[in-house]
């Protein structure tokens, strides 16, 4: 028998966090050969979509505090996935780019993410998926 969380079961915050933990765990467990990359696929995807943006803008985009963000960047840089260079947008800041290895890894991980997404949403209609994405975006907008 599954233990429930009582009245928390009726809150979006609890359900969202539980879904995030389960989704993250399942995705990361199937991709053990990629170092930290699966854990930071969202971050790497933002860098891929916006190469050269200053570190501070990327940190804002993924809602990470600067204190932990620098450590994560150091790790991803050590794994050869990203590089810091002077920003073309702000000469006082470093911009972030994926390395060729980073581009390759993110491309392969995105393919895996799409397969995993199909598994997670297998009993959902396209309308339900679209509705879920709209609701999540509203939550994100409200919290930003």
Automatic annotation (TrEMBL):
Family annotation (InterPro entries):
HTH_MarR-typ, MarR/SlyA-like, WH-like_DNA-bd_sf, WH_DNA-bd_sf
- Among the Pfam families in the record, one is MarR_2
Q: Where is the HTH marR-type domain?
A: 1-141
- Domain of life, per UniProt, equals Bacteria
Q: What is this protein called?
A: Winged helix-turn-helix transcriptional regulator
Supply the source organism for this entry.
Alloyangia mangrovi
């Amino acid at each position: 028998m599954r233990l429930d969380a009582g009245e928390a079961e009726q809150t979006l915050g609890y359900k969202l966090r539980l879904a995030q933990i389960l989704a993250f765990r399942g995705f990361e467990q199937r991709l053990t050969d990629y170092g930290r990359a699966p854990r930071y696929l969202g971050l790497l995807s933002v860098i891929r979509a916006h190469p050269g943006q200053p570190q501070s803008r990327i940190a804002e985009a993924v809602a990470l505090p600067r204190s932990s963000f620098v450590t994560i960047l150091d790790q991803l840089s050590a794994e050869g996935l990203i590089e810091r260079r002077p920003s073309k947008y702000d000469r006082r800041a470093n911009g972030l780019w994926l390395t060729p290895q980073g581009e390759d890894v993110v491309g392969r991980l995105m393919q895996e993410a799409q397969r995993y997404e199909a598994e997670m949403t297998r009993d959902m209609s396209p309308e339900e998926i679209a509705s879920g994405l709209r609701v999540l975006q509203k939550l994100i907008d409200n919290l930003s």
